[in-house]
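Hey, I'm writing a tutorial for new members on how sequence and structure tokens pair up, and I'd like a real worked example in the thread rather than a made-up one. If someone can provide the structure for the chain below, I'll link this post from the tutorial.
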Amino acid sequence: MSVPESYFDYPNRREGVDHDRFAFRSLRDAPPVQWSHGGKLALWVTLHLEHFPLNMPGKPLLPIGGFDRPGVSVWDYTERDYGNRVGIFRLMRLLDRHGITPTVAMNAAVAERCPPLMEAMLARGWEIAASGVDMGHLHHGETPPEEEARLAAESFATLRRLSGQAVTGWHSPAHSQSPRTADLVAAEGGQWIADWINDDMPYRFRTDAGALVQMPLSYDLSDRKVMQLQAQPAAIWSGQVEAARDLLLSETATYGGRILSLSLSPWVAGRPAKIATLDRLFSSLLSDSEVKPATGGTLAADWATQVPA
């Protein structure tokens, strides 16, 4: 089988990457950084607060956690609804006890629909990051440009208005991007984004409206992937996180500061059967004086001030 010579005529093909968003970089050659909190390994906890509409569409793609039953799925809807009304407050008490200030990647619809929840988070000084409008409006290659621009603008504007924060971070709902998403985030005043899962450390990401810092939001260690999608016991998930902690901490001796990213969904980690495991996990992670919690915005700023553009 042969391919036409034009098959190789792709303008963005270059060393190591097939796009022009960033130049190829090997992590072992990246400049070392030091975190402002003084620890070697930063524990970055991200909570995903999402609204799954009862009539959410399943096309063109279904997000992880989306409803895969035909028609209106009360079962799926109520399971997700549990997280924003019950599980999140259990996580609040746990994070308070361990002195962890998380980043909250938040659908704008949750902020509008759950004012008491927003008030409780703001009272704790949690960092709010934009995460689209809701899980029924994903960003993908078939989203019309005008519609996607409207969604990005609505997400940032709503969360800034209701939180009073600058809201400079972004995580696309369901990790789904169109070719324009990062450009729209930068145009809306975003400074960091956490969609690409291809690194353990931040890097600069080119957009039409200036560079963003791409943050290493972990997917392989997320509770939703391990405990929900793969149906692994909480103890297995906890062991994986501790193994990642040990490896990343060992790398700090040679390569400088590292990030242990932990993504939590209240409708998964906030369940009674899992909260005790998470409690023990936080105790284990923070028992090492070189492991300290930090928000995504703090880490992005620390990295950007130490690594020349």
